[in-house]
Design goal:
Number of helices: 9
Distance between the termini: 14 Å
Strand content: 25-35%
CATH topology of the largest domain: Quinone Oxidoreductase, Chain A, domain 1
Order of helices and strands: EEEHEEEEEHEHEHEEHEHEHHEHE
CATH architecture of the largest domain: Alpha-Beta Complex
CATH class of the largest domain: Alpha Beta
CATH superfamily of the largest domain: Medium-chain alcohol dehydrogenases, catalytic domain
Bound molecules: NADPH dihydro-nicotinamide-adenine-dinucleotide phosphate
Shape: globular
């Protein structure tokens, strides 16, 4: 393909990204050229595209922290032309051009061959949000939060991380308390396997230094008072996996949950997670994310709609996951 192709480009700071045409000569350096088929919309993509947070560190920047596609040209024999690959994170849409482009040139060290058990489209139905949900579940497991220890809470349950975490934890046999601010999605969350649904206001008040012990663990994509309340109400020896900031970046806690109840706060980052951990997470998703639930979670949208959808995800109007169809075919 030598012709122009479409991309969503942030041209300067504090200005929302727009659909543009690029040519192959515009692309950055890298040892593989990928024909991008699908990307996805994560909360961070919303922040970058709508220019609501300084995600993009240089300009012009092609947005999109995830991509799935087929290698078109390669200097790395491990990824010959025709190989189906995905990229999650690694600074795409921050320092490096990302997945909202019909073609992208990348460093092969960021590539993962399409995980077995998924189509390219399904990998983007999961995307960074879903793979991060699995990293959170694995963090709970590493800290011995097993289904017999008691219920687990998932906050931001209607979002991408929350929906996947709810479905996976329920499949693994945990009693999941799904926390949402949207009354209209209670049935959706129960359909994903939540045993009960809690209004997000319950966790939004000023946290006590130590609350009544209620759950064995939690997956939190909200932060701020929500995360503080989760920690103060976690049972002795429990663990909260924190990955998000949808409710704020502060954390008004005391040390009591840690020093009196041995509660662990496990931080989860997907962007620079090592390859081995990524492979494990994708293997686990193939095993533990029920296929039919993935279909319930996902909707598909064209590349052109990304600017509009970015505002929707920031306003909390997106349910589950959105796959972005990048290529026309
Ligand atoms: P979504 O927008 O899909 O989900 C976020 C959900 O959080 C919303 O659907 C909503 O759920 C809830 N929410 C939104 N605003 C508030 C608020 N003010 N107070 C309480 N709850 C709120 O985003 P993602 O699932 O893609 O990402 C979730 C978070 O995780 C983001 O902060 C994102 O940046 C972070 N993240 C971090 C990663 C990492 O590597 N650490 C990787 C991926 C995501 P509901 O309507 O059900 O209440």
């Amino acid at each position: 393909m030598t012709a122009a192709f479409k991309a969503i480009v942030a041209e300067e700071a504090k200005k929302p990204a727009v659909l543009k045409e690029l040519t192959p000569d515009d692309l950055p350096e890298g040892d593989v050229l990928v024909d991008v088929r699908y990307s996805t919309l994560n909360y961070k993509d919303g922040l970058a595209v709508a220019a609501k947070s300084p995600i993009c560190k240089s300009f012009p920047m092609v947005c999109g922290i995830d991509l799935a596609g087929v290698v078109a040209e390669s200097d790395n024999p491990d990824f010959p032309p025709g190989t189906e690959v995905i990229v999650n994170g690694f600074g795409l849409s921050e320092k490096y051009w990302g997945g909202y482009s019909q073609r992208q040139r990348l460093r092969s060290e960021w590539l993962l061959k399409r995980p077995e058990g998924f189509t390219l489209k399904e990998t983007m139905a999961i995307g960074t949000a879903g793979y991060t949900a699995m990293l959170c579940v694995m963090a709970l497991e590493r800290h011995d939060v097993t289904p017999d220890k008691g219920p687990v809470v998932v906050t931001g349950a209607g979002g991408g991380v929350g929906s996947v975490a709810t479905a996976v934890l329920a499949k693994l046999g945990y009693e999941v308390i799904a926390v949402t601010g949207r009354a209209e999605i209670h049935d959706y969350l129960k359909g994903l396997g939540a045993a009960s649904v809690m209004d997000r206001a319950t966790l939004a008040g000023d946290p006590k230094p130590l609350g009544r012990e209620q759950w064995a663990g939690a997956v939190d994509s909200v932060g701020s008072k929500t995360l503080a309340n989760l920690l103060s109400q976690t049972r002795y020896g429990g663990c909260v996996a924190a990955c998000g900031l949808a409710g704020g970046i502060d954390l008004p806690v005391t040390v009591f949950p840690f020093i009196l109840r041995s509660v662990t706060l496990a931080g989860v980052d997907s962007v620079m997670a090592p390859m081995d951990l990524r492979r494990q997470a994708w293997d686990r998703l193939a095993r533990d994310l029920p296929r039919e639930k993935l279909l319930d979670i996902v909707t598909e949208e064209p590349l052109e709609r990304v600017p509009e959808l970015a505002n929707d995800i920031l306003a909390g109007r997106v349910r589950g996951r959105i796959v972005i169809r990048v290529a026309d075919r």
